[in-house]
Amino acid sequence: MFDLAGLTTLKLPFKAKSLIRLTSIENVCVSMQQLGSIPRLVVGGGSNLVILEPEFDGIVLRPEIQYYDIKESGNDVYLEVGAGHPWHQLVMKTLDAGWFGLENLALIPGWMGAAPIQNIGAYGVELKDHCHRVKLYDFEEQSIIELSVPELKFGYRHSVFKEIPDRFLVLTVTLRLSKHATPRVCYGEISEELERQGLDAEKPHDIAKVVISIRQSKLPDPDITPNVGSFFKNPVVRPEVADRLLEEFPEMPTYGSGEYTKIAAGWLIDRLGLKGQKIGGFAVNDRQALVITNDGTGTADELRALVALILSSVKATYGLSLAIEPTQLGQLN
How far apart are the C-alpha atoms of 146 and 133, rounded to whole Å? Predict the structure, then answer.
């Protein structure tokens, strides 16, 4: 068995029967033919994966593809990036090149391959806003295919990959960026922090700098404190549900989301007094209630107990069911 706990940021025990490192698209085509019906699990940066079963009797696929290709069309830049590129490094690389659009997504952990699966987002921007297409290996057809944005079925922390979780392996993502900056600073504290730091809201580098500082002030670094970022999704409800809750909790933060209203899950948990709540080695982070941290000694059962406490408390007080954001290997509840 291969000890792979170090490939995940939550640092729960994790061993697998085998590990295949995929370093190129050609490597993928050759390697996949050998898998047959053996169980498989894709692990990239490991920052959005919760391991609840310590041993996996199958093959872990690690897509380390470093492909990088640029095509320009007028003010548009189409950047095809391999699944193995660390996301934050890519964001800063595009800004340094004068290609804009990803600045609000700075400092999100993980690799490029996970970005379309989660439709990662922050501060009013989601991957879908800048995704052009995704190249995949289709395990069912045993071939390489490409999906366009409509085919990817992007939604809030959702994509077609969540609907068919074991069918595809992300190989590359093509992003559509611009040589002209279109700053988006109206979400959260970005505009206030720009002013406080004396930075320019028209400069994408300054926006990225502020986003980084905000995230660092609120979120523990997974390289230092084991965690998987936001553990729960913000509930998305009908306006009448939000209005009912606002009558009882007028200070509750809400955000318009088309015909639905998004409610801040972190606020719901925080208001219940659960920040800092510990069960064994796991704790609700004392700066951001959406984050659950591991002091290095936590067990899967302790994590289950803490999550169950949070879910039941939110349900009892607000009548809302929180959804788990990270991918899970094994059962959480």
Answer: 7
